[in-house]
Amino acid sequence: MPQAPVFHLHQVSKAYSNGVVALQGLNFTVNRGEFVSLVGASGCGKSTVLRLVANLLNITEGEIEWSDSEPQQKLAFVFQQPALLPWATVFENIRLPLKLAGMSRNKSRTKVQEAIHLVGLTGFESAYPRQLSGGMKMRVSLARALVTDPQLLLMDEPFGALDELTRTKLNHDLLRLAQQQHWTVLFVTHNLYEAVYLSHRVLVMSSHPGQIVAEVPIDVAYPRPEDFRLSRPFHQYCDRVAVELTQATQGQY
Amino acid sequence: MSSTQIKPSESETIQASESPRGNFWQILVRRLTSIEIIAPLVVGVLFLVSWELFVRWSNTPPYLLPGPLLVIQTLWRDWAILLPALWITFQITIVAFLAAIVSGVVLSILLTLNKWVEYSLFPYAVVLQTTPIVAIAPLIIIWTRQVLPPQSSTFVALVICAWIIAFFPILSNTTLGLNSVDHTLKDVFQLYNASPWQTLLYLRLPSALPYFLGGLRISGGLALIGAVVAEFVAGTGGQRSGIAYQILMASYNLQIARMFAAILLITLLGIGIFWSLTVLSNLLLGHWHESALKREN
């Protein structure tokens, strides 16, 4: 894969106004077409990294170098909660980013339909969020992120609140879409199996303050075999990440 | 985007269920024979019957306590006096209520958009709310008489009194609603560079709607109370006199049955206002808000 960076974090630190240092001296790069996961214990600052990249938080020290001139226009964010408008239908929820960009209803229709089709929600266009299960709400949230054709997809534990079966199914679908669409994804999770299954690279974080302590490349090329989750290499990678994660959190519990 | 389609799995099944429906008459009969209708009806009828029996057995004179039958007879007989009076009170209530809605919503939007407006105006809105309307009504009546011609000054004065009472619940509820926006949704709007105007229109106002409607139901009743109280204070007679003036006159003349009839009309009007606002609320929130959803047990 050609190594064309999308962005690079250079010595990024984040301290909150109450003096808590959330992140210290973070350095890492995400390349085009790459799926990168950040794993770490709860509260280690994984989500903070995403919010800094999305410019929802201000950096205390260091900088993020973008290879593109207008990065804000081209990224999308999938939050921990589906964060849907309860008064709007599935269609209207997915159309929201286009509506906010001033695109007319007619012009955006095709794009919205494509996104709905992609995440498998065809037939649910006029349903309201309350009628959907947790997994389907997450699909709506994903479709809303995809509708703008983002160059970078930021995902903050998007499947954390789902049951194991639904999570596995959504992981499977996400991997297939990422492989086909050549997405660039920065994915935050505390589930290392999920991270290994999806990613090209897994970055392991320690907490207090948050730092990247290890990088585990998952050298299984896309498209990954259907039974990757059951294969020997998968479990070896999981063991490696688990060892790094244990070392990273040593003495903190 | 290419066209790969991915289906939700079995574990992501849809949870919505349609409520069982019959035709219109079946639903009506089921509604009317439900415990929610029957139980209060029985209590009401028992109360009225014992009231009537008590009045008859104890020979209570009608200028102290008229029986319910006499009240109904009086209502029928004095219909031509009471109904126009009720119509005046209704007009005052509606105008004051509409003024309260417009001013309450506009001011609450200003309060949430600008901290300076909030700090400088909100305390005075509280002052307006906590000052007893009975105490300031005479002032308002005197002042409007100075400014306006006599044929409209009373009406305007009464509207102002009712508006002062009805205004605050709408202001405070809508402000609360505008400030209760989900944080992640705010992030979504920030992420997509929404303008303050777009955030207000597509996020804050819809989020505030359930709170606003809650305030509306309180204010509707308060506007009526405000109108009646102000009429009492004003004590105005003549062509455009409201139902409270009729109550006042009836009490001077010891026409207690007519007083009861007038009170009955005010109560019915109040119930009517509350009921229509509840229907409106369910219509607007029916398909999404928890408060209006029907659940099966």
The count of β-strands of chain A is: 9
Strand order of the largest sheet of chain A: 5-6-7-3-8-9
Mean pLDDT across residues of chain A: 89
Helix content of chain A: 25-40%
Mean of pLDDT of chain B? 86
> Any idea what the shape of chain A is?
globular
Largest sheet of chain B: none
Series of secondary-structure elements of chain A, N-terminal to C-terminal: EEEHEEHHHEHEHEEH
Low-confidence stretches of chain B: 13-19
Tally of distinct domains of chain B: 2
Question: What's the number of helices of chain B?
Answer: 11
How big is the Rg of chain A?
18 Å
Report how far apart the termini of chain B are.
Answer: 44 Å
Shape of chain B: flat
Q: What is the CA–CA distance across the termini of chain A?
A: 40 Å
Secondary-structure-derived class of chain A: alpha/beta
- Residue stretches of chain A low in confidence (pLDDT < 50, at least 5 long) are none
Structural class of chain B: mainly alpha
CATH class of the largest domain in chain B: Mainly Alpha
* Largest pleated sheet of chain A: 6 strands, mixed
**Can you tell me the CATH superfamily of the largest domain in chain B?**
MetI-like
Family (chain B): Belongs to the binding-protein-dependent transport system permease family.
Keywords (chain B): Cell membrane, Membrane, Transmembrane, Transmembrane helix, Transport
Membrane topology (chain B): Multi-pass membrane protein
Pfam family, one (chain B): BPD_transp_1
